[in-house]
């Protein structure tokens, strides 16, 4: 006979079912305010565990269908309120549920934890596994952070093998310079109908997505969307880790399944040996279910704001100028910086960042990183780099500087000063990637050294902004003092996150940018700790719009730093196109402003002024949406917007939409603003305005569509405000 218990907190409610001969399974997810009532008739264990000597009960390569997962039995549960969750985050008043389990055969004990912030119905979850035996060690090979089935509305049809194919999966491919390439696939094309129910066994296939090393979004992303329009359901799930991870979906006979995990043995050379009484905790994961994609992304945005570590710069994100992209490009000098500083202040910049090369005397800044002492040849004056930093501050801007804290260049004198144990090593040798040794943040020597660097730069120069870059990845991990390569890498990643938290505690006003060779580490473990996220290193302004438009799928709009780098040789339309690429995110500017004529200089200044007037006050509470769907890489037309959150829907804050047309575009654009359907609206241009041709617009209230007539055969962009009556 089965038993059920329900946990309600914030806006969400979870129901669990268990029995003496069945593991605990999530049986319902409800969000009454959104009329969401989901049942899970396929009893999937809430945690799956692979351990040496205990494999699968159904032979397969999945991280589900595990013998231990099937054998875990309910022990008890407790609820609590947490002001400061165990996993890093800033939400106060979150509800917490711990479910205790035990497998009598293996002696494995597990506590599966769920947390829900009062600001969002999205659920955060992880598992802690303990060796409950008295004599033998247990070696873990995989532990899920979340496992569950797709589900269906309580008042609708149950998913069957025949209806499974109605689900679609949206996932993204990533690479340097071409981040955020989202694509959608019908699940039936991944999982053919094979009538597995005739065998009495679930199918063995799965669609797995894996990231290795420490570029957590170097090839794929730890977030995906499942949508079933027939059922009126959309899932968003993510893994919150700045290192190796794996997620998979598949079809069981009764329903589809989802499994989310950090590193696992099969994919990442990870294992963890637990002595009796020892424990291991997985990386966190999170999920939400809503009626459609737009509602799910709204839940995701509110979740991110609830769980990130708060900072004064979140609500009104400062305008940033960085001297790197298509400008100084790693060759800073006093003579080059001073005119740029003056020009940046004149157009309204609030933070000025000196990028890479500031420490290098050799002329080759790449392999010399690590000592972090200012170059005397690049800044030859009596005050050295302080002359430049003082100039930034005197112009009313916050001085910022570039740092790559996780590496030491092979030509840096620090490479010989730190012991081998401070670096990621394999087979007794330091791992070398593109002339860099990679620091191991498990090492106290590493942490102490980098603390001294930060303290010196902040203390001596008064820097208020760090661009923290990371241009290499160490592979599977280290074999120094560890159970496995993968476990050393996991502990390094966790130690790095803890180091960032320590930095934040010491310098709470310091603004931190997460740049990992552009956008190679856009995971929520990083994004919950940083105020700014670089979206790409893309240097072609014509290619950037799909990157900029897709970026808020992985981050908050106010974090999304997409480059605008107007140059003196550009036309007014090209300059405006550049500015619109950064306009509905974190305003992130580069380019030789000091070489521009008066008209172009004024255009850049008007873009920043318009941003401060229209975007800066509202972006910190806005919800991203995509009125043409998530952009394809080669799309002729790209569109991205910000709308007020539901709690602000009745206020006067307008919906903002940016549209880019790229050369081959022809004809009328029809933007879908589903949240505004049935309401009258006034449409007005926001940027650019003065001196630019007007793009005619027509609002169709009954359809919730905005019709725009754009030019053809050009690269051009406009941002509009849609104010609802």
Automatic annotation (TrEMBL):
It catalyses: Hydrolysis of terminal, non-reducing alpha-D-galactose residues in alpha-D-galactosides, including galactose oligosaccharides, galactomannans and galactolipids. Gene3D superfamilies: Aldolase class I, alpha-galactosidase from lactobacil brevis. GO terms for biological process: carbohydrate catabolic process. Residues 72-150 form the Glycosyl hydrolase family 36 N-terminal domain. Keywords: Glycosidase, Hydrolase. One of its GO terms (molecular function) is alpha-galactosidase activity. InterPro entries: Aldolase_TIM, Alpga-gal_N_sf, Alpha-glycosidase_related, GH, Glyco_hydro_36, Glyco_hydro_36_N. It comes from the Bacteria. Its EC number is 3.2.1.22. This is alpha-galactosidase.
